[in-house]
Structure prediction request, 294 residues.
Amino acid sequence: MRHTLTLLLAMAIPLTVQAEHPLSGKLWHISEQRFVPEAELFNQLPAGGWLLLGEQHDNPHHHRLQQRWIESLADRGQLGAVALEMATTAQQPLLNQALGQGSTVTAELLNWNAGWNWTLYADVVRLSLDRAPAVIGTDLTREQQRSAYSEGAPAGDTGELHANYMRRLLFESHCGQLPKDSLEGMLQVQLARDQQMAERLDQAQLEALSGVMLTGTIHARDDLGIPLWLEKPAVTVLLTSVRDDRHQPYDYLPESYPDAPAAADYLMFTDAIAERDYCAELQSSHRKTESSGS
Prediction:
C-alpha cells in the first residue's frame, strides 16, 4: 500500500520521452525566477541542515542525478548523512553494518523492501554507504503504519486546508478507486510518515555538513510533506521531468492549497521516461482479480 501510494503520487503528471528539451539539465531558483549553476546551490546549502531531493521513484534519470550530486558533495567535503525514505528505522542496524561496504552490499543484506526496485536504487545506496558518514532509514515500519491508520498521526495535522488538499491528492493518486471511507486513515499514515521522517532528520548528527534526503516529490514539498515538521534548516529541490508541451519553468510550478508556503526552493529539470497509464493498469488488475473470483 505504501509504495503504491508514493509511486502514484509521484506519477500524478503524465510524462513523455524527450530529446534535447530546452529545460533538461537546468536548475531553476523558484523565488528568484532564474536559472542557477549547481555549484551555487551547493554553496548555499545549510551547514548542519538538509538538502531534500524530491524524486519520481521510477525515473532512472533522477537516480543518476542523485548519485552525481552526492558524489559532488562528498568531493567538496560537504556531504553529511544520506537519508532514505526507502528504508525503515528497523533497517538501521543493517545500514550501520554496511557502512563503508557499499561495493559489496546486496538487497538481501539490507533486508531491502521489494516494493522499492533495487535495480533503480542499488547504485545510489551503494555510493551513499561508501561516501557518506551515515546512511539513515527514516520510514515507518508496516506495524507503525497500521497503527497510524487506526490511531492517527502522533502530531496531528497542520489544518484543514492542507488536510483536504492531501485527501484529494490521495484519492486522485489512486485513480478514484480508493474507498472514501479509507481516506482519513490513508491521510493519517501519510502525515505520520512525514512526521517520523522529519524526526529522523532532526536527530541526525551532521556537525557542519549538509545531509541529503532522498524521497518522493510529495514528501519533499515544503507545503505538503517533511519540511512542515522539520526543525533543522533545509533546501528543497524537486526533480522535475520535462514535457514536450511545456517549455517554461513557470509551467511546472506545483499547484497547492490557498495560502500555502512555496512548494520548493528549486526545480531541477531532467529527461522524462516513457509514459505509463497507471490508472489503466490498476483498473486492469482489478478486473483480473474480479474475473478470477478472488
